[in-house]
Amino acid sequence: MNVRHVAIIMDGNGRWAELRGLPRIEGHRRGVKKVRSIIDASIELRLEALTLYAFSMENWHRPRPEVEA
Q1: For residues 61 and 39, which has the higher predicted lDDT (pLDDT)?
Q2: How large is the average pLDDT for residues 34-62?
Q3: Range of the domain at 9
Q4: What is the rounded distance in angstroms from the CA atom of residue 31 to the CA atom of residue 27?
Q5: Is there a catalytic annotation at residue 59?
Q6: Domain total of the chain
Q7: Please, what's the largest Cα pairwise distance for the chain?
Q8: pLDDT at residue 38 greater than cutoff 90
């Protein structure tokens, strides 16, 4: 099977951090690191398309520092 397109809904980074006693922003930072490795792997695998869904309209209602991070 030849995969041409991968789509990822990024959800739960803030909850992941909170469950570990970390600030929500730390979960987002770690999510960014993971995205970088996913992009590198996508290039290596020669994917034609990578879709990353990272921010919904509801996210605008989060605390300002979290939205701006």
Answers
A1: 39
A2: 89
A3: 5-68
A4: 6
A5: yes
A6: 1
A7: 44
A8: yes
